[in-house]
Structure formats: structure tokens, C-alpha cells
Design goal:
With 149 residues, the chain is of the alpha+beta class. The protein is built from five helices and six strands, in the order αβαααβαββββ. 32% of the residues lie in helices and 19% in strands. The longest helix has 15 residues. The chain is globular.
Length: 149
């Protein structure tokens, strides 16, 4: 068996096969101060995960990006912000890269805060609810940021 954090045991145990599809809760979330959808998914995700407003998340990411010589929306930048706040990254196994979705993860994790990534999009699941500016439930997960409690 792959060495998996407890939260991914379901996926690893089944090897990605026969993963059930659920109808998880989804909540629209767009705290952009102008209400625009401007490719700020990482800012929204960090905002929810850290329990801060959009502006604070943006500044945290901008400062980290400046210090790293990278853009605030870069995976390594917002990942560093999460890491500084006690989060750990876990890459899902390649056994079934398209079969475990944001929706599946939300249904399987009714407690906790998790930041889910596809490589090109990121959203947060908090207490079993997917928060995003669009319904991304069907997006397949590549990696998860989680906090050990």
C-alpha cells in the first residue's frame, strides 16, 4: 500500500478503483473586493484555509512572491504561505488520476480544512463543503494541502 495520510486512506486502499460519485455540498465563494472573477482561485483558497479576508490572503501571497521572485499565484508561492501556517502537501497516487474529484473528497471529509489542487486550479474544502467561484466538483485532484491537528 502507498504511504498515505489518514485522510487519503479511502483512495489509497481502493487503489483509485470504484470510487463512488457523490453529490457533495458546494458553496459559491468570491470575496474579490470588486466581485470580479480574475484568475484569483489561489487567493480565494488561501483566504478560506487561513480564515482571513481576500485582501489579507493577497498581501501574504504578494509578499511571499516578492521574496521568492515569483508571481503570487504560483503554486510554490501560495504553497509556501500555507506551509508557513502549518499545512502539509500530499500528492495523490497516479493509480487513477481522473477518478477522485473535488466532489468525492468533500464527501469523504466532513471535518477539517483542505486545499485541493489540479495543477491549474485550486479550491478549498472546509467541513465537507467545497468553496469556489464556480462549481468545480468534477475537477480531478492532483494534490492536497492539509493541516495535522
Amino acid at each position: 500500500m502507498v504511504n498515505c495520510p489518514v485522510f487519503c486512506y479511502h483512495l489509497c486502499r481502493k487503489g483509485g478503483e470504484n470510487v463512488k460519485r457523490y453529490s457533495a455540498d458546494y458553496e459559491f465563494y468570491n470575496e474579490n473586493p470588486t466581485g470580479r472573477s480574475v484568475g484569483d482561485c489561489a487567493v480565494r483558497a488561501v483566504s478560506i484555509a487561513l480564515g482571513v479576508d481576500w485582501e489579507t490572503a493577497y498581501v501574504l501571497m504578494a509578499v511571499a512572491g516578492f521574496n521568492m521572485g515569483d508571481m503570487p499565484s504560483g503554486n510554490s508561492v501560495w504553497g509556501a504561505v500555507l506551509r508557513q501556517h502549518g499545512f502539509y502537501r500530499y500528492n495523490l497516487p497516479e493509480t487513477c488520476p481522473d477518478c477522485y474529484t473535488f466532489e468525492d473528497f468533500a464527501q469523504d471529509h466532513p471535518r477539517g480544512v483542505f486545499v485541493l489542487g489540479t495543477g491549474t486550479h485550486v479550491a478549498t474544502v472546509k467541513d465537507g463543503i467545497l468553496y469556489d467561484a464556480w462549481n468545480s466538483q468534477r475537477e480531478p485532484i492532483d494534490f492536497v494541502w492539509y493541516r495535522k491537528d
